[in-house]
């Protein structure tokens, strides 16, 4: 009877927690819970780490290339290579500001030059037609000029709700947080870059010896897939910028470069990004022409159609050519799985969650596939199981 009880105890232990795969799953759940709690309570620090990881992934190849460069047989010190990579990064930022600051300034001047009284006068006729349509079709009994009056009151309420003092305090607080965050990001990124393969070494040092083969294979595949994904995203942004800028420039749409830059950056947000980019293009394109010349409803509709055609062609190229190359070859994921991952990311963290959904999905996909493959390919789990069964027999015999 004691033998049966001993066997039963060993069997329960083996099924519950002594089985290696169960132990790994429990550890994974605990790790994910800890990461979620850390992100929830220390969101700023988590965002700094994520941004630093992205920057280190971008600047890492530059640092390694500079470090391997030899001048008169002397290799460049790694700390100097890191500093030069930061200078190159800041050089790109300054070039970006120098190139696009005049365009941004023109947009601000354009907004400041808007004459709301003139816009309201131009909107009287279309609003009157809308009122007539609603009265005839739905018997709503809207008085003439009521829609225009409602719009005027809504605009006044909007400006009254904006308090200059609160706005100044908000901007001041944002500037302070942005300055501190920038210093923290570059401080963390510096140490990530200074020690070669810092993240790789940190992850591999946390792997137990018994799971070393599985862990090394997992880390290698994650690094390879994420690097391919980041490179694909960069190529996608360059392609979208080129297509939109070329198409709008050929159609003589003002501020084509500004629209193209916004569209390329907004496209980082899956599904929602193209809508934001197209809407921005319509607003900037139509408003910039309408404020400098008379633009009839028919001409505005034709202009909007031309802008939409450019964005439609861009999305066709993106969906049929760029995304299959990026997601199918780099991430190696099914479109339905990508959609579900993006949906979960949107519910958890909004726009940022949608941006990071695919990389996070890639990491979990690699980990799960490696765990499944390790059971078949590696002998670690089989050895542990045989040892546990042997210990169980010894316990039952006692």
TrEMBL record:
Highest taxon of source: Bacteria
Bilayer-crossing regions: 21-42, 48-67, 79-105, 171-194, 229-251, 257-287, 299-317, 337-364
Presence of keyword Protease: no
An individual GO BP term: transmembrane transport
Lipid bilayer topology: Multi-pass membrane protein
A Gene Ontology term for the protein's cellular component: plasma membrane
InterPro entries noted in UniProt: AI-2E-like
Localization annotation: Cell membrane
Record key words, sorted: Cell membrane, Membrane, Transmembrane, Transmembrane helix, Transport
Keyword Membrane: yes
Pfam families per UniProt: AI-2E_transport
Family stated for the protein in its record: Belongs to the autoinducer-2 exporter (AI-2E) (TC 2.A.86) family.
Protein name as it appears in the record: Putative PurR-regulated permease PerM
Organism of provenance: Thermonema lapsum
């Amino acid at each position: 009877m004691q033998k049966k009880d001993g066997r039963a105890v060993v069997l329960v232990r083996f099924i519950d927690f002594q089985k290696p795969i169960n132990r790994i799953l429990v550890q994974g759940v605990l790790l994910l819970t800890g990461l979620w709690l850390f992100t929830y309570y220390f969101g700023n620090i988590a965002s700094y780490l994520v941004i630093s990881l992205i920057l280190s992934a971008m600047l890492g190849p530059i640092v390694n290339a500079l470090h391997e460069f030899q001048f008169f047989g002397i290799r460049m010190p790694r700390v100097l290579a890191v500093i030069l990579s930061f200078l190159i990064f800041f050089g790109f930022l300054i070039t970006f500001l120098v190139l696009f600051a005049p365009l941004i300034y023109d947009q601000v001047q354009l907004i400041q030059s808007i004459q709301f009284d003139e816009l309201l006068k131009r909107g009287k006729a279309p609003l009157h037609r809308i009122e007539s349509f609603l009265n005839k079709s739905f018997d709503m009994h809207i008085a003439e000029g009521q829609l225009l009056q409602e719009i005027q009151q809504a605009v006044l309420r909007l400006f009254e709700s904006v308090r200059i003092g609160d706005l100044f305090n908000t901007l001041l607080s944002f500037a302070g947080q942005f300055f501190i965050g920038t210093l923290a990001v570059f401080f963390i990124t510096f140490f990530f870059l200074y020690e070669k393969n810092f993240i790789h070494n940190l992850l591999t040092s946390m792997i137990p010896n018994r799971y070393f083969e599985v862990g090394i294979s997992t880390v290698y595949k994650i690094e390879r897939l994420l690097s391919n994904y980041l490179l694909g995203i960069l190529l996608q942004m360059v392609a979208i910028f080129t297509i939109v800028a070329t198409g709008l420039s050929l159609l003589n749409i003002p501020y084509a470069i500004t629209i193209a830059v916004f569209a390329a950056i907004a496209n980082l947000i899956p599904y929602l990004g193209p809508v934001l980019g197209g809407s921005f293009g319509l607003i900037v394109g139509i408003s910039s022409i309408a404020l400098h010349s008379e633009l009839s409803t028919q001409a505005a509709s034709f202009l909007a159609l031309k802008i939409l055609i450019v964005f439609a062609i861009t999305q066709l190229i993106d969906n049929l050519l760029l995304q299959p190359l990026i997601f199918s070859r780099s991430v190696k994921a099914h479109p339905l799985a990508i959609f579900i991952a993006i949906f979960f990311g949107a519910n958890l963290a909004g726009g940022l969650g949608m941006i990071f959904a695919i990389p996070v999905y890639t990491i979990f996909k690699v980990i799960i596939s490696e765990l499944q493959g390790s059971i078949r390919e590696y002998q670690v789990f089989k050895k542990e199981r045989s040892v546990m069964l042997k210990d169980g027999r010894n316990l039952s015999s006692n």
